[in-house]
Design goal:
Layout lengths: L2 E7 L6 H9 L5 E6 L5 H12 L2 E5 L5 H14 L4 E4 L11 H10 L4 E5 L15 H18 L11 E4 H4 L11 H11 L4 E5 L18 H18 L6 H17 L1
Parallel strand pairs: 1-2, 1-4, 2-3, 5-7
Antiparallel strand pairs: 4-6, 5-6
Length: 259
C-alpha cells in the first residue's frame, strides 16, 4: 500500500522545517505544495528538497487551499499512490497521529478517513480552546452537512484526512478556497464513498489567522460555505440519497434568491 503525505503550505517559515522533520519520522513520500509563500518558506524548502527527498509543487501566486488539495490528488494518481494523507504545516496537525491513519487505511473499510478534533479520544489529550466564531461555524455547518447528506460527522472542516486515490478520481471538485470541504462531502456522498472519522488533537497556535476575500467576517464566511454546499448539491442532485433531494432543492432556491 503506497501512501503519499501531502502538505499545503503558505508562509510557514516558522514551522515548515520542524514539521517536515517530524513527518519524515513516519513517512518516506512527502509532497509539499507551496501556495505562493512570500516569506522564507521557499528558501527553506529548497534547502530541504534534496536531503529529505521532497516532491515540491510551487505556485508563484496564492491560488487557494482547495486548488492545492486537488493537485495533491492528481500527483498521487499520476505517481501510482493508493492513498494520500493531507495535513497542515502550522503545527496544528500532529505528525505523531500518522500511524493512526495508517492503521485505519490497513483496515480497508473507508474511502475518506477524516480527522476530528471533537471526537473524544479517551487518552487524556489536552485541547486548546478554538476561537468562538470558528467553532460556532464548524458546528453549524457540520450539522447542516449531516442533516442534508445523512452523515454523522463531528468535524466538517479538519484538513487532516486520508483519501483513497481511486475514489478521489471519481469526484468533480472545482473550489479553490477554504470552502473546498463543502464540495468534497457532497461529491463523496453523491458517489457513494465510505466516510469515517478518527480523533486528532485540537490545537490552535494562531488565533489571528485570516481567511482573505472578506471571509474574516464570520457571517460572510458562513454564508459563503452554505452557498458552496448548496450549489454542489444542485450539481449532483439526482445522485444524492432520496432524503437529501427535497432539502437540496430548497437550499438551491435560497442561493438563487440570495445570490
Amino acid at each position: 500500500m503506497r501512501v503519499l503525505i501531502a502538505i499545503p503550505i503558505y508562509n510557514e517559515q516558522d514551522h515548515v522545517q520542524s514539521v517536515l522533520e517530524r513527518v519524515r519520522e513516519f513517512a518516506d513520500n512527502i509532497l509539499v505544495l507551496d501556495d505562493g509563500s512570500t516569506d522564507r518558506t521557499p528558501e527553506i524548502l529548497n534547502d530541504l528538497r534534496e536531503p529529505m527527498g521532497l516532491d515540491i509543487i510551487r505556485h508563484e501566486a496564492n491560488i487557494g487551499y482547495g486548488c492545492a488539495i486537488r493537485q495533491a490528488y492528481q500527483r498521487a494518481h499520476r505517481d501510482g499512490y493508493d492513498w494520500v494523507i493531507t495535513m497542515d504545516c502550522d503545527d496544528q496537525h500532529e505528525p505523531e497521529r500518522l500511524p493512526d491513519f495508517f492503521d485505519a487505511i490497513k483496515r480497508d473499510e473507508l474511502d475518506i478517513i477524516s480527522g476530528s478534533r471533537y471526537l473524544k479520544s479517551g487518552n487524556g489529550w489536552d485541547a486548546d480552546l478554538p476561537p468562538a466564531d470558528r467553532r460556532a461555524i464548524n458546528a453549524t455547518i457540520t450539522k447542516e452537512i449531516n442533516d442534508r447528506l445523512g452523515l454523522s460527522l463531528t468535524d466538517g472542516f479538519c484538513g487532516f484526512k486520508a483519501h483513497r486515490v481511486s475514489a478521489m478520481a471519481k469526484l468533480n471538485l472545482t473550489d479553490n478556497g477554504y470552502a473546498f470541504p463543502m464540495q468534497l462531502w457532497v461529491q463523496a456522498v453523491a458517489n457513494g464513498l465510505r466516510i469515517g472519522e478518527i480523533p486528532v488533537e485540537l490545537i490552535y497556535n494562531n488565533l489571528n489567522r485570516t481567511f482573505g476575500g472578506g471571509l474574516d467576517n464570520p457571517q460572510i464566511r458562513l454564508t459563503h460555505y452554505r452557498c458552496v454546499m448548496y450549489r454542489a448539491m444542485d450539481q449532483v442532485i439526482d445522485q444524492l440519497p432520496a432524503m437529501a433531494r427535497a432539502q437540496a432543492k430548497a437550499d438551491c432556491t435560497k442561493v438563487s434568491i440570495n445570490g
